[in-house]
Amino acid sequence: MPLPNRFLERASAPTVPSIRGASVRTAVVTGASSGIGRATAAALAAHDYRVIGTSRNSRSVVNPIPGVEYRDLDLASPESVRSFAHGLSEIDVDILVNNAGESQCGPLEELPIDALERLFRLNVLGHIELTQLILPAMRARRQGRVVFVGSMLASFPLAFRSSYVASKAALKGFATAARLELAPFGIHLTTVEPGSIDTGLSDRRTKYISDDSPYREAFTTTVGALDAKESQGISAERVARTIVHSATTPQPKPLYAVGSRAPLVFTARRLLPRRVIESVMAHSYGLG
């Protein structure tokens, strides 16, 4: 029986209190056209938030969620980030959910630098710049929530996922380090780390490996195991419930993890040597 972990989400579905007394509460969710972002936007709308969901092309969103206002945002473009933030200048944003991102894999030796730059611009820098632009208004009102959607791979790194792991670890680093800066102004920063999720992300993951790569056999084994785990993973809706809870509970934890037996594996991570954890991770993905 796993030990309790005060940093992890409980299995039961949380309640969703209001964080302010105003009649209209506003949440911004990036990457709201599919997967976790779409499920989170729907959950917030169901709890009477005015939801502004982003997509690189808002007009192409399939089956828009009732109650969600879609706006264009390309996090890889600083100009787009600033334009989007400017469009929020007359809106009190209560919750910002930094969710959008790209999934990438490949041997470290073969990852193209331009692909790494794009990944970090999209997964990290775009979200940080958007957060920077929204924080002053939250600080002036002395209230606000910012949720960074990371990945359990940031806590349990996996071979051939180094770039993605690094981008999600960077988000967690920003959130964790800045929490004490913003807490005196009534602003809470939280990271949510999902485990394996069944959202079809495997089909959209960018892969970088040459035909004659010396890593091809191990890469194929690892990515095949990754795809299989994701096909049996938890739903985006379950992750969304955790995100909404983290964004609305009166005293949020620094980190919430959901899926992939999170309470058990985080307890093991605290109790066991790092080498043992790495060996178990490698074995579970057909390596080692």
Automatic annotation (TrEMBL):
Decide whether keyword Nucleotide-binding is in the record: no
What GO molecular function annotation could you give as one example from this UniProt entry? oxidoreductase activity
Does Acyltransferase count among this protein's keywords? no
Please name the source species. Answer: Gordonia lacunae
From which domain of life does this come? Bacteria
List the InterPro entries: NAD(P)-bd_dom_sf (IPR036291), Sc_DH/Rdtase_CS (IPR020904), SDR_fam (IPR002347)
Q: Which UniProt keywords apply?
A: Oxidoreductase
Concerning its family, UniProt says: Belongs to the short-chain dehydrogenases/reductases (SDR) family.
Protein's name in the database:
Short-chain dehydrogenase/reductase
Return the SUPFAM superfamilies for the record: NAD(P)-binding Rossmann-fold domains
